Amino acid sequence: MTALDLGGRRVVVTGGRGFLGRYVCKAFEGRGAEVVALGSSDYDLTEQSEVRRLYQEQSPSVVVHLAAACGGIGANIENPARFLYENALMGLSLLEEGRRAGLDKLVLISTTCSYPKDAPLPLQEDSIWSGKPVGATGPYGMAKRLLHEACETYGRQYGLPCAVLVPANLYGPGDHFEEEKSHVIPAIIRRYVEAKDAGLESVSNWGTGTPTREFLHAADAAEAIALAAERDVPCEPINLGTGVETSIADLTTMIAAAVGYEGEVAWDTSKPDGQPRRYLDVSRAREHLGFSAAIDLEAGLRETVDWYRANPVE
Ligand SMILES: NC(=O)c1ccc[n+]([C@@H]2O[C@H](COP(=O)([O-])OP(=O)(O)OC[C@H]3O[C@@H](n4cnc5c(N)ncnc54)[C@H](OP(=O)(O)O)[C@@H]3O)[C@@H](O)[C@H]2O)c1
Predict the structure, then answer these.
(1) How many domains does the chain have?
(2) Which end of the chain is more exposed for a tag (fewer CB within 10 A), N or C?
(3) Confidence tier at 1 by pLDDT (50, 70, 90)
(4) What three-state secondary structure class fits 274?
């Protein structure tokens, strides 16, 4: 099934020093690839001339495109146009300059924010275009969705093989715990670590806790990304996840336990809940990549809490 042997192959990972990037570099290095991890100080990928320079200087055989203008909900609310513009430009320039440079393969990492709000559950890749991506992350999702089509189109016209992966919410050691960047798991871990350290008897969480989400350890995601690079996959979006939905209340209880917080886990039901349910159909990843997630959520949370304890963020 391995169509492209990564051993000795030069692989550029954009956003390679970011949260997911570090896991991806490790997964490719484990397969013997010669990995180049890039950050924005190396090349500003929103500038096409910089992207051209990247291909000239680095001569990659494979590009794994993780770099993104992204962040927590607040960052999306403040930067809808910037996120749309920068994410679309980075992806398009990497494809255009890549096909000119004779790139062998591009792996695009997308987001479940590209799904429309009312897509049926579990989210199936074919429903991505059944409505508009809405809410704060809509413009970010729309830019990624454009790139799904761009990958397919570059494959059709120029024969550039691409893989398009749509991961669930990622978590794990090294995640962003800063307030402006943190997603749900780091935000809850931080809240409960601070509550334990302050000896609080009760911690109130927003809403009812009944909405569900799906969480994938970044190491599992990185393994799936490496499989997508080496296998011959059709250029259509492939969900990456566990297929398991977890309520925010259950997640919070697991995190409180991992932290060793013994007070009350309370819910302020006067505050709004987010979207009610969200989880992925992961059958396409099983079929095309032979991928199924290996890391259990409770074990992954304990590992992440331990990491945060050892690496606290101001
Ligand atoms: N985290 C999640 O839960 C999640 C879920 C689904 C999908 N994803 C996707 O996974 C990818 C990685 O996410 P992440 O959480 O690892 O994010 P991250 O840690 O913020 O990494 C993103 C990287 O993009 C780079 N970047 C941003 N703007 C750039 C530019 N103009 N030129 C060059 N590089 C630029 C940044 O480099 P510098 O730090 O050097 O500036 C940063 O390291 C993204 O594409 C995201 O959409 C993430």
Answers:
(1) 1
(2) C
(3) low
(4) coil
Assigned domain for 148 exists = yes
CA of 57 to the centre of ligand 1 (A): 22
- Assign residue 132 the CATH number of its domain: 3.40.50.720
Residue 2: pLDDT band by 50, 70, 90 thresholds?
low
258 found inside a domain: no
Instruction: Look up the pTM and report it.
Output: 0.97
Q: Which of 20, 76, 84, 115 to mutate to test the pocket of ligand 1 (most atoms within 8 A of CB)?
A: 20
Query: For 52-97, how does the pLDDT look when each residue is reduced to its tens digit (9 = 90+)?
Result: 999 999 999 999 999 999 988 888 999 999 999 999 999 999 999 9
- Whether residue 42 lies inside any domain: the answer is yes
Dihedral angle computed from the Cα positions of residues 99, 107, 110 and 188, in that order, rounded to the nearest 10 degrees:
-140
Structural domain harbouring 38: 10-172+215-243+279-295
Residue pLDDT, tens place only, 132-152 = 998 999 999 999 999 999 999
Model confidence at 275: pLDDT above 90: no
Structural domain includes residue 64: yes
Ligand 1 binding pocket (C-beta < 6 A) is 14-15, 17-21, 39-41, 44-46, 66-70, 86, 109, 111, 167, 169-170, 183
Question: If you measure from the C-alpha of residue 159 to the centroid of ligand 1, how many angstroms do you get, rounded to a whole number?
Answer: 27
- Give the torsion through C-alpha atoms of 300, 301, 305, 311, to 10 deg: 50
CA distance 37 to 242: 27
Q: Active-site residue 192, yes or no?
A: no
Helix (H) or strand (E) holding 267: strand 264-268
CA of 69 to the centre of ligand 1 (A): 6
Q: How far apart are CA 218 and CA 61, in angstroms?
A: 24
